[in-house]
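Hey L., structure's done. Input below.
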Amino acid sequence: MNVQMTDRVQRSFSRSFRTYHDAACQQARIAERLAQDLHKSGAPRQFVSGLEFGCGTGLLTQRLCAQFAFDQLTINDLSPEAQETAYDFGADFLCGDAGTIAWPVRPDLIVSASMIQWLPDPAAFLRRAAIALAPGGWLAVSGFGPGQYRELMHVGSAAKAPGLCRAEEMVAAVSDHLDVVSFGEDERQMRFSTPRKVLDHLRKTGVNGRAQKPWTKSNLLAFSKDYSQRFGDAHGVSLTYHPTWLIARKPCAV
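Output:
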């Protein structure tokens, strides 16, 4: 992302920091699955150095600390408010854009849940992570695929994250450096009573940071009508989540 867009996304997530944890039910489900899959894949229970990107309010951090122990854990986020998360879990905090900041040297675990879609080139980030890992280290990352929020795209929203990618693209980015243990993708739909409730959900989870124009009464009414006609039924309207994920390990040094 360019600096202006990065600043806009940061402000959006900062505004939603107090509401994110309770509203981000799908992101919580994804974090739970990522931590469980890492454990089931044979990752060690003790890591020397862990590095998490996009920690936010700690949905993944909490699950990692319940499953694994760390001699040192560094967590990163674009929003400075996430320093509270680091304090809660006794971790070091690294604030800034994951694509441009300096990383700790040779961690043996790199993880990230529901963050890489905000990077303009998630494949470059994944390759950097694969190279940065210590020999024998583990990578566990989730993002979102092209079906994410498809309803919004169909009604002309400009808020799409720039780095939506399929699981196969994540695999291709790391396969020259890591042994892929597992990967996959899924689609789930949330239901809301009205399109305005969809917008409220997006605001509470901070994912509207790329939206270009403020709402007016007329375009809000037009949006609600179009959304309801296309994606509504007797039970409300839908919003699609399309999580993708990858677990991989770096070969040990010979």
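The chain has one domain: 3-150+161-189+240-249. The chain has a mean pLDDT of 90.

-- N.
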